[in-house]
Amino acid sequence: MVGLANPGSMGFDFAHINLHKTFSTPHGGGGPGGGVLCVREELAPYLPAPVLEQAGDRYQWSYDRPRSIGRVHSYYGNFGMIVRALCYVKSLGAEGLAEVSREAIVNANYLKARLKDAFTPSHEGYCMHEFVLSAARQKARGVRALDLAKRILDFGMHAPTTYFPLIVDEALMIEPTETETKASLDAFADALLTIDRETKEDPERVKRAPTQTPVKRLDEARAARKLTLTWQDLEAEVGGA
Amino acid sequence: MPELTLRELSVKEHRGPRLAPLDVPAEGAERLLPRERLRGEAPALPEIPEPAVVRHFVNLSVLNHHIDKAIYPLGSCTMKYNPKLNDEMAQMPGLQAIHPLQPEDLSQGALAVIWELHEWLKVIMGMPAITTQPAAGAQCELTAILMTRAYHAERGNPREEVIVPDSAHGTNPSTVHQVGYRVVTVPSGPDGCVDIGALKREVSGKTAALTACSTWTARI
């Protein structure tokens, strides 16, 4: 919605966005995040201290904030991300940012239109920058959203978010973003439609996936329950081999 | 085929770049370090030519999926391509070498960067006040609910409940709980939006805030 609408004019008192991803710090490797919290005037006194102020031609941190909730982070946030975000908004400009939003919305609606006959959209009509499909029909053929997601990996693409939101049965949440070309969107849609065909003709192939990746299907829960974080942990696990 | 580790790729005497001969007198480690700091044998460092090292890391870089390889349509995550220019700017020596404990008079350029971004984001969000201190989204939620409590407490009643839609990100109810409020869940209607009738029934004098997912927004 950047450049098209804003939470302030909708009457929200707080609104949060991320600097990572939306405002140009790559994500996916567990790298740094950056949170932005905007508030209306009456809530400003409670913002975490210090607050940046402009005094003439000089900038300074104001620590004299008696009603502040205090610090939530050391120093002043993740500065490298602030630099990336400023470079991003300045290089696009106001109109460029609105164009980013329009393209993200058009891309999502294009993919939704290409996929809606094979997968059931959670809701009819146009979407914003992302949409949710239900794989309920595929589930009836014995193939679950998780299997579809694993099979997409064999096409060299990342899977959509699965099982979120929780209120949609066998949810696949898809957000193509504005940075994909039509050819890339088509390749993704073609892959999902191919996989849908496989659920009718060869469901076992989908349930065995992935077969083309460096590691095959992993236990979904083991990494969270059995932590192997150091080489000593690994040695203990494999018996010091 | 699995990628071997650098240790497995190592072949004795397969060195990388050759160092130029010393043009100053050699000083043995035993003359520079106390005896107890010297190791008994040479370290078992991998011995690999430079091209093999480059290939090793390039091969590793494509084992995982990333946006530089192909589409990453992970919903609710915005895994888009980020221009490399922005990384280059963040790596400028003048910005890399500053320290947060440096005096404000010597940090004016960095503070101007933060100030200018704040001005942009306030316009984008349509809101007059901002912090970029939180580390990420869940901490923004925590900050917002802590501020909610401070706001209400100052008016004599911190209230008891925060209303969260059933489609919300899991961090929403956990944040509410962490600040000590009770989570009141409202269902979604058939159109996927919050059931307004149910919402009206839940709002009361106990309500501290209403939250909306998943680009997290709230109303006191």
* Secondary structural class of chain A: alpha+beta
| Spatial gap, N to C terminus of chain B | 56 Å
**SSE string of chain B, helices as H and strands as E:** HHHHHHEHEHEHEE
Please, what is the oligomeric state? heterodimer
Distance between the termini of chain A: 54 Å
- Please tally the helical runs of chain A, counting DSSP H or I stretches of 4 or more residues: 8
- In DSSP terms, counting alpha (H) and pi (I) runs of 4 or more, how many helices of chain B? 9
What form of chain B results from the Cα inertia axes? elongated
- What is the strand content of chain B? 5-15%
Shape annotation of chain A? globular
Instruction: Please estimate the helix content of chain A.
Output: 25-40%
Write the layout of secondary structure elements.
The complex is a heterodimer of chains A (241) and B (220).
Chain A: H1 7-10, E1 14-18, E2 35-39, E3 51-55, E4 58-62, H2 79-115, E5 120-121, E6 131-134, H3 136-140, H4 145-153, E7 161-162, E8 171-174, H5 182-201, H6 203-208, H7 222-225, H8 231-238
Antiparallel strand pairs in A: 1-2, 3-4, 5-6, 6-8, 7-8
Helix pairs in contact in A: 2-5
Chain B: H1 6-9, H2 29-32, H3 50-61, H4 84-90, H5 93-96, H6 108-125, E1 129-131, H7 137-154, E2 161-165, H8 171-179, E3 182-186, H9 196-202, E4 207-212, E5 217-219
Parallel strand pairs in B: 2-3, 2-4
Antiparallel strand pairs in B: 4-5
Helix pairs in contact in B: 7-8
